[in-house]
Specification:
alpha+beta, 223 residues, binds zinc ion, globular, nine-stranded mixed sheet
């Protein structure tokens, strides 16, 4: 099936652009990491084993929500089950999986990335969970990722492996990946200096309420 008939040309071009950014921004090296976009009941996902700067539109794989390949001459990412678990169980429109260094370092030491900064709220909770170590590409890593994202979390750290984030669009999922790496990096630096102070649930709720109040004031029609 030609990609034009699948009406996925926009998402395919976007996957190439963000794949290159993954390397440029230091969120992965070589062929590591993978990205996908959902379009209805189809998922466009990067193939396994091709460097991002060599990737072309026709290399992107199209699979259905059960993982059946619908289009593409390449092998879909080995982490396709992890991406599909999120599409099947959350409102994800795009998923980004990285091997970003601070995320891996922090995820190999702690069970939870706590709120050293209120920006963590943009990832849908007061902390980010770390999964147990699971073999890459396994149903176990897919299940552990889903469990770590429960309660509306838009990301998780994968122990001794990397990070995963999702969002309504690829731009949002990618921003979440950069934010998660930044939060892990800040926490790492703080831990080098001592035991960091963590924002309490009350302080985080207060922040959310204040942000909503200010947004309301901005949006309220002036009399
Ligand atoms: Zn990986």
């Amino acid at each position: 099936v030609p990609t034009a008939e699948l009406d996925l040309e926009g998402p395919l071009t976007e996957l190439l652009a963000y794949g290159r950014r993954l390397i440029e921004d230091g969120l992965s090296i070589g062929t590591a990491g993978n990205l996908s976009i959902r379009a209805g009941d189809r998922v466009a996902i990067t193939p396994t084993g091709i460097p991002y700067d060599e990737l072309e539109v026709h290399d992107i794989c199209i699979v259905d929500l059960s993982g059946e390949k619908l289009h593409g001459h390449r092998t879909p990412s080995t982490e396709t089950p992890m991406h599909l678990a999120l599409y099947n169980e959350t409102d994800a429109g795009a998923v980004v999986h990285t091997h970003s260094p601070a995320a891996i370092a922090v995820g190999s030491v702690v069970d939870v990335l706590p709120a050293v900064h209120y920006a963590i709220l943009r990832l849908g909770g007061h902390s980010i969970r770390v999964t147990d170590y699971q073999l890459f590409g396994s149903d176990g890593i897919a299940a552990a990722t889903l469990a770590a994202c429960r309660g509306g979390r838009r990301g998780a750290l994968l122990r001794n492996h990397g990070a995963i984030t999702y969002g309504p669009t690829l731009a949002a999922a990618y921003d979440a990946a950069r934010l998660l790496e930044w939060l892990a990096d800040v926490y790492w630096r703080a831990r080098l200096l001592g035991e960091p102070r963590i924002l309490s649930d009350e302080e985080l709720d207060e922040h959310t309420n204040e942000a909503e109040r200010r947004r309301y004031l901005q949006e309220a029609p002036s009399q």
